[in-house]
Amino acid sequence: MGQNLILNYHGIIDSRTQKGHSDAIYSIQSSVFEEHLKILKELPVNIYTINELKKAAKSELNVFLTFDDGHESDYEIAKPLLDKYGFKASFFISLINISENDQRWQQYRELAESGNTIGSHGVSHRFLSNLNKEQQLEELIISKKTIENKINREIDYFSLPGGMYNKMTIRLAKEIGYKGLLTTYFNYMESSSIPYLLGRWSIKSSDSLETYKGVLQKNKYVISKIILRNRLNKSLSILLGHHNLDKLNYLFNS
Ligand SMILES: [Zn+2]
Question: Do the Cβ atoms of 143 and 123 come closer than 8 Å?
């Protein structure tokens, strides 16, 4: 039986102009993103969107490309490159990054119409694990309804800001009608049984092309290193708080 691997990207910087949302840890260059797409094209993997999770069960390794936050680069940089290689992706919008009358809603409508998945990444980008019931409901429901109205499609998946959640998050998300929550725990998932909490590999600017290739080829050494770092990050994140950890990671990586 096959496996599913979900990759998580954030903003992409245009390598020619150096324009685009710049985050020291998560933003990658468009030239690097194109190298990723070339690697995907060469390997025996199939690319699907999150809405196609059920459809993807047949092949050996299914890869899902997801983009968080709702950056301008989704349409301006990622889409042209995805088109060039014939791939579709999934885009998770946080309402904090796109206002009510933003012209960019048209771009997301277009992305949805051409077969990409659009999902929710909440209203305020606050971590749901830090919120009470009313606040979590607000993040889950208002983002879902707003995006649905804007793109005229059902929003079935929610990407958790910071990958953070608690038991209440899962219960409320199910009640509201979400089909799944996307976390930032790295794992390969058996495609025969789709879990409600979907793990992802959150790609960082410090990850090399060798690491990328290693993950896609299921290189044991590369994977165990990522899982170890992932666990360490989660423990430190709980200990220090997410934002302090990002600062610390930045110091280590630069
Ligand atoms: Zn985010």
Answer: yes
Residue 92 lies in a domain: yes
pTM for the whole structure? 0.93
**In this structure, what CATH number is given to the domain that contains residue 34?**
3.20.20.370
- Given a contact cutoff of 8 angstroms between Cβ atoms, the answer to whether 215 and 28 are in contact is no
Neighbours of ion ligand 1 (CB under 5 A): 68-69, 161
pLDDT in tens, 152-199: 999 999 999 999 999 999 999 999 999 999 999 998 999 888 999 999
User: What's the gap in Å between 154 CA and the centre of ligand 1?
Assistant: 21
Domains identified in the chain, total number:
1
| Cα 218 to averaged position of ligand 1 atoms, centre (Å) | 26
Q: What count of other Cβ atoms lies within 10 Å of the Cβ of residue 48?
A: 24
Going from the Cα of 69 to the center of ligand 1, the distance in angstroms, rounded, reads: 5
For 79-95, write each residue's pLDDT tens digit. 999 999 999 999 999 99
